[in-house]
Amino acid sequence: MNSANSVGIVTPQHAVFEEPLHLASGETLPSFTLVYETYGRLNQAKSNAILICHALSGHHHAAGYHHEDETKPGWWDSCIGPGKPIDTNRFFVVSLNNLGGCHGSTGPRSINPSTSKLWGPDFPQVQVSDWVSSQARLADHLGISTWAAVIGGSLGGMQAMQWSIQYPDRLKYCLVIASAMDLSAQNIAFNEIARQAILSDTHFHEGRYLEHDTNPSQGLALARMVGHVTYLSDDAMASKFGRDLRRGSFDKSVTEQVEFQVESYLRYQGSQFSTSFDANTYILMTKALDYFDLACDFEGDSVEAFKQAKAKFLVVSFSTDWRFSPRRSREITDALIAAGRSVSYAEIEAKEGHDAFLMPIPRYLDVLSAYLSRVAEECA
Amino acid sequence: MRLDLTQIQKWIPKAARVLDLGCGDGEFLATLRHERQVSGLGLEIDANNITLALQKGIDVIEQDMDRGLDNFPSQSFDVVVMAHALQVLHYPDKVLEEMLRIGAEGIVTFPNFAHWRCRLHLGTRGRMPVSKFLPHSWYDTPNIHFCTVKDFEALCKQRGFRIQKRALVSEGSLTRALSKVWPNLFATTAIFKISR
Hints:
The structure holds 2 protein chains of 2 kinds. Chain A is of the alpha/beta class. Chain A has 10 helices and 16 strands. Chain B is an alpha/beta fold. Chain B has a single domain, classed as Vaccinia Virus protein VP39 (Rossmann fold, 3-Layer(aba) Sandwich), CATH 3.40.50. Chain B has 8 helices and 7 strands; from the N terminus they run αβαβαββαβααβααβ. In chain B, strand 1, helix 2 (27-36) and strand 2 form a beta-alpha-beta unit. At the A-B interface, helix 9, strand 16 and helix 10 of A face helix 3 and strand 3 of B.
């Protein structure tokens, strides 16, 4: 554990909601649990709370450490902590694991109360709007009527935007990072490849792998590998791996099979992921991504959608991000401009591709700090 | 604040919606917000300036106006300001057209290239003018489209822009007086308020 500028040791908490949640699909979740963490202190007026919405494979553990001997902090520790852009000296930060997740919130690995069996593949397909509804319940639970800001990157940015039109009065600021108002066909295509990798694994058993005491590890690993490539840029991969070999040689006298560094890296990432993530959750989360369409209730008109919003917006993109390209962020910005909303937009020069939104890139942190100091002045 | 900005401020109605093209560090919009209660939005391409503007609580969009402004709806602002940016644009005439599509009025300021010092410099030395105000050499200057007060007025006439107001700024009381008589010779900075 590195305690410099860290929120330190954090303990996940659970909130249980007994009131049924009516989902966008028409189904109803009779009750549910959300696991979450908080950093910093809620002020007396309860006006300094920030909600962090996680991306595809994220969870509630966004900052700090669970144990003294943990070496890796939460997934957004570069941004959340004392003196960091999301400054826990000023803000009360809430980060949760979304419904359908596999890190402690109700999801495919939970028991279906009506059958007393694992939900598995029968867990209802939740959508971004359902996540936002459940997050609003969590806000109620914590006594927070209005967030100072809702912040998210990628799929998290979709939740932040959805907040602004679903509960316009419940957030002052909305920070949308490396996101889009809907996925492109190319983007859906990558998700479908990932899903097919899982579905075609013989250990998948139509989603009932836990009952079969097995795991579609190969499929999950493949899904992660293809996803991971799309989160990196060509330049980032070139500088990280180039054509370096991990084993073997192109020398004719060497018989050992050639293995590129990038192959080994991807396999490692894939296998790590397959032991820590649930296949049904991966399918559910990628579908939530695919189904999201900010303007679907507004006849496809995103300007009309954003006219519902009252929050002020910051939109951020990264130059080499091709999965959620700057063009997609400019579409968000332009819709907000046309809707007459308060909006700022920054396009960060970064070589890391989509992954840049998780990286401590100096200009990115500067932009977030500058904008959030305004949020703090108004709210904290 | 720069002289031209002090002048522009007087021309901006209270509580106006102002778009500032090339807003720099946001100081001008911050002043306008304080003095005139405007709601402002800036356009800027310099990373440091964008951060400085955000720190002041100014909304700023990272966008190169040479690549078009068609993402701004027609008549969505009361005033569109462009201070000392005309001469760095690739398509100054197109940006002026866009300013008057987006805003009811446009305010433009630019360095007057027909100022007597420029003329003297070019006339006697035969070299492109370099001064405190225009410190770049010809090969590394961002200023690629210099014009004079007369040039600008000719463009306005050709494109049908109405000149609502004109102010000519110069330093020192003598040149200020002279610039009232011979603006194209004695004004260092020209400020125009234009409309359709």
